[in-house]
Protein 1
Amino acid sequence: MGQYFMFEMFTTLGFAWSVSLVLAILFVLAYEFINGFHDTANAVATVIYTKAMPANLAVVTSALFNFAGVLLGGLGVAYAIVHLLPVDSLLGMDSTQGLLMVFSLLFSAIIWNLGTWYFGIPASSSHTLIGSIMGVGGAFAWMNHQPILQGINVSKASQIMLSLIISPTLGFVMAGIFLLIMKYVWQKHKIHRTPDEQMQINGKKHPPFWARAS
C-alpha cells in the first residue's frame, strides 16, 4: 500500500517535479552524511589527542550519543532553526522558489562543510546550516525588492545567536571550575599527571582512569 502511494505521488507530480524531489532528498542525505564525519572529528579530537580514548572507540561513542541525543532530546533545535525564516516569506513563495531555496541552502552548507573539513578548519555544521538559511532568506527578500532583514526572523536569529555564545562559554567556565576543584581536593594525585609523566612511571601514556572518565 505504501509503495503504491509513493508511485502514485510521483506520477501526479510529473517528471520534472519528481526529479526535483529526488534531488532534494539526495541533497539532504548528502548534507547529513557530511555532517556525520565533519562534526564527529570536532567532537572526538580532544579525547583522541589526549589519549583518553582510542580513536575507534571515540568515534563509535560519539555516534551512539549523537543518535541518543536525537531520540531523547526532541526536535526543539530543528524547529528553532526552521523558524529563522518568517512565515510570511514562506507563504509568499511558489513551489519553484521553495525548491530553489532548499537547493541553495543545502548546496552552500555542503560546500562549506567539505571545504572546512578538507583544510582542517574547525567549524560547526549546525552553524553552517543556520548561516545558509539566513542567507537564502535575506537573498529572497532582496530579490523581491524588500529589506534584507525582512527575509529573516530577527528575534529568533538573535535568540539562536545568543544561545550559541552562551552555551560554549558556560561549558568553558564550568569545566574550568571543575578542574580547579579537582586540583584542590586531590592535590599531587596521579589524576593530574601529564602523558609524559605517566609514561615514565608506569609505561602508559594515556591519562589515569578517573581523568579520562571526567
Protein 2
Amino acid sequence: MMSGTELPGAQGQAQPRAAGRPLSSAQRKKAGIAAFFAVLALVSGVGLLKTDYLDVKSVVEEAKPGVFTLDRCEHSGGTDQGPSTFCYGDFRSSDGELELTDVPLKESHDAEGTEAGEAFPAHALRPDVGPAEVFRTDDQGESDLAMRGIGALGLALLGVMLGGFAGRMMMGPGPARSRLGAWLGFGTVVSLLLWLIGRGTGGGFWA
C-alpha cells in the first residue's frame, strides 16, 4: 500500500537514476590517468614495432648478405642506468664487394653465446646508403627479431587494454561492466606477458 507522499513507480526509477549519476571528480581523474597511460603504451608499442621490427625488415631487404665475424663486446653503464653492451666486428659480403671493419652489430644481444673470432650470417648496409650497421640474419637473428616484434605488439595491446579500463570507468554498475572488466583483466595479463617475454628474449634486457 502506498503512502500519501510516494509517487507511482518511484521505487522502479531509483536505480536507473543512481546508475546514471554523473561521474565524481575522483572517477574522472582515474579515467583520465588510465587514458593517459593507454595512449603512452599504445604510441610506444607502435613506435617500437616500427623501429625495431618493420624498419629492420625493410633495411635487411636492401642490405647486402655476407658474414659477420665478432671481434669484441664492450659493457658500460652503472647500476642506476643499467648496463649497456656494444658488439663490434668485421663484415664481408658474399660477393666480396663490401668489406667493413670494426662495424657495430645493430642488436648486440644477437651476439649472445658467440665468442670473439666466431662468425654468423648477416646483412649490412653500404656506407653510401646509411649508417654502417650489421644485422644478424641466421635463425637466431630472425628469432630475436620476431620476438622483438611480439614484445612491441604486447606493449601496444596493453595500451588498448588500458583504454578499455578508462572506458569501463564511464559505465554504470551492471553485468556488462563486470564482463568487460574480466576480459580486460585477461587481456592485460596476456599483453604484459607478450611484452616482457618478447622484449626480454629478443632484446636481452634480462639476459
